[in-house]
């Protein structure tokens, strides 16, 4: 039986959402953040030596890292659903957004969070270039979603599951006004109507109103 | 024809290396960093709207993001080489390290770089927790390589191609003494003997002595 360890208000919401989309059996265990530091509790950190969310168990397997877990669950239990094959015309786009979410976009947002928390200090060209990536990422997303309904094209895929977190719940930590991004806002509304997404958010973070605008 | 745009001393060394491992035809175009800022030149940034290395062209396809490019090239031209299938006992490990490289480890190293460049400033528990990830990552890698010759087990895979950069060339930007990590050092020696790696580094960064110890 698949066990999904969900840390409140974290990237592990993706895994709960994927399981709901696939309608596969899984056990959900919720963990709350420390109310003062907002960090994961010790029992969550102990689940995997890297100590970050998400983490799943599947028999002897203990697996971390969103991209790895989603690929794993889809391959093992999802029959390849929500992925595109190499001969699909949107294959490269599918791969790009799937990897861009954590490889570049979450990195840009995390650096933004760090720079904003550290008061004062020097802002040299390297730092400025790293900060600029947040806006380049949102501009890139806006452009993509002004052409297609979903990241990989006109069908919902795992790229959407990877990309949603930096556009929604991550804004709890790095607030950003989405007014300049009408296509992103339309996309978030579209995702918000998905019953699986609604079920996942209700189960995973019942006290959070999903940041869909 | 596949074109690999290699920015000197950057993550795009992975793509040159992959092409050499697969022994597939490709055109290599090198770009030097600005000697003062160490940033990518404008012509490199113009290749893809996100402006980061690596970038490849393949016919009409313009693709960025290491993980996406490696998956793409292996699927299109590599016949699935250097990947593991879902029924392989090391499948979850393969996925983990493949995604961990940029999803978590490069993020931890980039945050380290940013914090060290910004003089002074507050170090609150969230910042400390993010910085701590660098050491947790290296400890995790050391433990893995003390058991297996390669990241996914006893065979060389694309996980090794993803993971090598944060262990080697990234140390140009975030220096780190590898003395406490004997298994990582033994692994780097092992990779350093691969003819494809040697060819790739000579072609991509002829003036750089690979950071293999």
From TrEMBL, chains A, B:
Q: Which reaction does it catalyse?
A: RX + glutathione = an S-substituted glutathione + a halide anion + H(+)
Listed GO cellular component terms?
A: cytoplasm
Gene3D superfamilies attached to this UniProt entry:
1.20.1050.10, Glutaredoxin
- InterPro entries associated with the record: Glutathione-S-Trfase_C-like (IPR010987), Glutathione-S-Trfase_C_sf (IPR036282), Glutathione_S-Trfase (IPR040079), Glutathione_S-Trfase_N (IPR004045), Thioredoxin-like_sf (IPR036249)
Q: Which UniProt keywords apply?
A: Transferase
- Which EC number applies? 2.5.1.18
Q: Among its keywords, does the record have Methyltransferase?
A: no
Q: Outline the extent of the GST N-terminal domain.
A: 1-81
Q: Which GO terms describe its molecular function?
A: glutathione transferase activity; peroxidase activity
Residues forming the GST C-terminal domain are 87-210
Report the domain of life of the source organism: Eukaryota
PANTHER family (alphabetical): GLUTATHIONE S-TRANSFERASE 1, GLUTATHIONE S-TRANSFERASE-RELATED
Similarity section: Belongs to the GST superfamily.
**Protein's recorded name:** glutathione transferase
State the species of origin: Didymodactylos carnosus
Q: Lineage in the entry?
A: Eukaryota, Metazoa, Spiralia, Gnathifera, Rotifera
């Amino acid at each position: 039986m698949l066990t999904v360890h969900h840390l409140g208000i974290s990237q592990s919401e993706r895994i709960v959402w994927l399981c709901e989309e696939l309608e596969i059996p899984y056990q959900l265990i919720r963990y709350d953040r420390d109310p003062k530091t907002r960090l994961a509790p010790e029992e969550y950190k102990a689940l995997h030596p890297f100590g970050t969310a998400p983490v799943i168990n599947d028999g002897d397997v203990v697996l971390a890292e969103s991209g790895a877990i989603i690929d794993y669950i889809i391959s093992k239990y999802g029959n390849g659903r929500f992925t595109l094959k190499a001969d699909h015309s949107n294959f490269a786009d599918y791969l790009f957004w799937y990897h861009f979410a954590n490889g570049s976009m979450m990195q840009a947002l995390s650096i933004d969070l760090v720079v904003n928390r550290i008061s004062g200090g020097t802002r040299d060209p390297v730092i400025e270039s790293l900060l600029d990536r947040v806006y380049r990422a949102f501009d890139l997303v806006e452009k993509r979603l002004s052409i297609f309904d979903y990241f990989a094209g006109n069908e919902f895929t795992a790229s959407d599951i990877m990309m949603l977190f930096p556009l929604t719940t991550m804004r709890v930590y790095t607030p950003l006004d989405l007014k300049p991004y009408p296509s992103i806002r339309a996309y978030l509304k579209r995702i918000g109507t998905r019953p699986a997404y609604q079920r996942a958010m209700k189960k995973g973070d019942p006290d959070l109103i999903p940041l869909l605008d």
